[in-house]
Design goal:
Layout: H1 2-23, E1 27-36, E2 44-48, E3 63-71, E4 80-90, E5 97-106, E6 115-123, E7 128-137, E8 144-155, E9 160-170
Antiparallel strand pairs: 1-3, 1-9, 2-3, 3-4, 4-5, 5-6, 6-7, 7-8, 8-9
Protein name: Dirigent protein
Family: Belongs to the plant dirigent protein family.
Signal peptide: 1-25
């Protein structure tokens, strides 16, 4: 009888520990947005702004459309895994903050058809920015977390940036 109780207790303990670690499991993804702001291959562009003012990336009221390639590495020639599509709104009067609403739409074999929904305030003058991952679809359904952004490459002549996304997800 004692060995039966010990076995039942051990099994219950094992199941509890397994469920605890599954519930607290964390997934980390790293990828790069290839952001080009001018020229015929532009992937970010102002679409509307306040009348009588320049529509720029630091002008209050400017709304910017985004359709950036998402790659595995910082080079624009590295393997593409999806696209970052959405809008940016310059939401601070001094132009320092942008409200970002982005969908990372995966096209690679591992996550094809899945998305991550990212939103929050991006503080343009900070080296590291942090945004919320509010949800996802497909392989990322019901997940949430956060992402840190860092511009790792910027070429002012071509207005091209490579922005590293370090995404941390939890169920």
């Amino acid at each position: 009888m004692a060995s039966s109780k010990f076995f039942s207790f051990s099994l219950l303990l094992f199941i509890s520990i397994t469920l605890f670690y599954q519930a607290n499991a964390q997934t980390t993804l790293n990828f790069y947005l290839q952001d080009t702001a001018k020229g015929p291959g532009a992937t970010v562009t102002p679409i509307i702004g306040l009348p009588g003012r320049d529509w720029t990336f630091d002008q209050f009221g400017t709304i910017i459309a985004v359709d950036d390639p998402v790659t595995m590495g910082p080079s624009p020639l590295s393997t593409q895994v999806g696209r970052a599509q959405g809008v940016l709104v310059v939401s601070a009067k001094d132009g320092a903050n942008v409200n970002a609403i982005l969908s990372i739409v995966f096209t690679n074999a591992e996550f094809s058809g899945s998305t991550l929904q990212i939103q929050g305030v991006s503080r343009q003058h900070e080296h590291y920015k942090e945004l919320s991952v509010v949800s996802g679809t497909g392989r990322f359904a019901f997940l949430r977390g956060y992402t840190t952004l860092e511009t790792v490459v910027y070429d002012p002549a071509t207005a091209h940036s490579a922005i590293r996304f370090n995404v941390t997800l939890r169920p």
